Amino acid sequence: MPGETGRIERNPCLLAIEMGKVGCSERVLEALRDDQVRVKVEVSLVSTGTELHHIMGTHTKPFTYPGSTGYISVGRIEGFGSKVENWKLGERVLVQQSHFARHNANPNQMLRVPEGVDPVDAATAILLGISLRGVRGGQVRLGDSVLVVGLGVIGQYAVHLAKVAGAHPVIAVDLVAKRREIARELGADVALDPKSCDVKAEVLKATHGEGAFVTMDASGTPKVIATLPDYTAAFGRVVVLGGVHGSVPFDLYTRFQKSNLTMVGCGSHYPGDYPFDKPQRNEAVLLQMIASGQVRPRPAITHVVPWREGPEMYRMLIEEKEKVVGVAFRWE
């Protein structure tokens, strides 16, 4: 068993210690099994939608406090078991693990990070992969008009990947000015503030009276999702990309059935979308596109801070959403 493989009594971490509160803590890390890889984490990334629902107790799946949160980490291999093959000490890898300083990981669920890719950028591949579900599920083609409502990290990356896919125009909607600015940097042709304009009128104007052919909700807000058919062109697609934890009131007749719309859920990649039918294949391609410069995820990561600032960052994500979009923690 090369490298560091023994039991670690004090493994620093961030935990949801009670509803609405995250704290710095420590947990025991067990000795490495023969079929595991030990990863020393450099960066972990917040998945704001899923994590905040867990922390605030609003997720449809119950959450037990105290409990670990998050599922995105990038680090270097510092040990591996005797049954592990084709991995080397020091390799940088992307793993689906929570906010801990070290992990014992399943090598079948790791991805190599291409040489030269910053660990913060590498960590975004998993969230980019979620946004890519919306682009693929919406079947965005060259020249399709696309509307994205809700510009958290997932919405920002939906804007960016729609533009990379050749969509035009890409229209972004959010209440927060900072988020609209980031969306423009990531490729939005039009960025709208629903407080200061008639969104439907502006969408029709930008799409020559047709409406957007693909509309995506990345807000996860039921009342927002209910409005998407009003902005969607006849025979277009309504894509539910954000996690929706509540009932959505829909007028299925006047603006859905009569307009021949299609509604698409994006909880996973589609089995028929070979070879991009598995998350890891999409994430591997996204890592390559980050390495080439074609995909530029960094504008959506507004805060990169030491992990001990985690409690304050979660407070900001809950109480001061206008100041922060994406958050990464450094663990060096």
Structure characterization notes:
The protein is an alpha/beta fold. Strand 13 (232-240), helix 9 and strand 14 (262-265) form a beta-alpha-beta unit. The strands form three sheets. Strands 3, 5, 6, 7, 8, 15 and 16 form a seven-stranded mixed beta sheet that branches. A six-stranded parallel beta sheet has the order 11-10-9-12-13-14, with helices on both faces. It has a three-stranded antiparallel beta sheet with strand order 2-1-4. Helix 3 (125-137) packs across helix 4 and helix 3 (125-137) crosses helix 10. 28% of the residues lie in helices and 27% in strands. The model has no long low-confidence stretch (mean pLDDT 92).
Task: Give the secondary structure arrangement, pairings included.
Layout: E1 8-18, E2 21-29, E3 37-45, H1 48-56, E4 67-68, E5 73-80, E6 92-95, E7 102-105, E8 110-112, H2 119-123, H3 125-137, E9 146-149, H4 153-164, E10 170-173, H5 177-185, E11 190-192, H6 199-206, E12 212-217, H7 222-225, H8 228-231, E13 232-240, H9 253-257, E14 262-265, H10 279-292, E15 301-306, H11 310-319, E16 326-330
Parallel strand pairs: 9-10, 9-12, 10-11, 12-13, 13-14, 15-16
Antiparallel strand pairs: 1-2, 1-4, 3-5, 3-7, 3-16, 5-6, 6-8
Helix pairs in contact: 3-4, 3-10
